[in-house]
Design a protein that fits this description.
globular; OB fold (Dihydrolipoamide Acetyltransferase, E2P); single chain; 6-stranded mixed β-sheet; 40% strand; alpha+beta; 5-stranded mixed β-sheet
Length: 184
Amino acid sequence: MTEIRNPAAGQGSSQLAELAGKYLTFRLAAEEYGLEIIKVQEIIGLLPVTHVPRVPEYVRGVINLRGRIIPTVDLRTKFGMERIADTEKTCIIVVEVGSPKGGKMNMGIIVDEVAEVLDIAADELDHPPEFGTSVNMSFILGVGIVKEGVKILLDIDRVLTTEEAKIVQSVAQQQQQMAQGKAS
């Protein structure tokens, strides 16, 4: 039987030790992913999404969350997966990410289903897989080998490139200004 764990030695193991902690896990298709719990603001059911014209396909639109305009990204589409109809388990995870203009911004990520919060220990972590230099994997922190399954741990700050994050932030700001203009 082949062992899927590949504990890193030396400097790599200290990097993995820093990743140990609590992760919110969720599903996209048959895959499970994890986000550092500290990045998660809240989990909400799927709200009506206002579509915004002329944005990239992965930007589903914006939601109004208690008066705040939050841009939403469909992670299935962003990751190149087949888009499916929303279900009763589809939800939005509101995360706090680094803003391209400095500071922080909130963004909703639409996922198929939230699974659980896991406490992943350093000995359950491995480095991200390498697929060659042509594939950018900088948005993957590592891989958790937990409960006989693999959880891909995302660096939510890097899921969108800087340029993509600027687009998402711009969409939210424009919609917020339009909403404030209507309220005046």
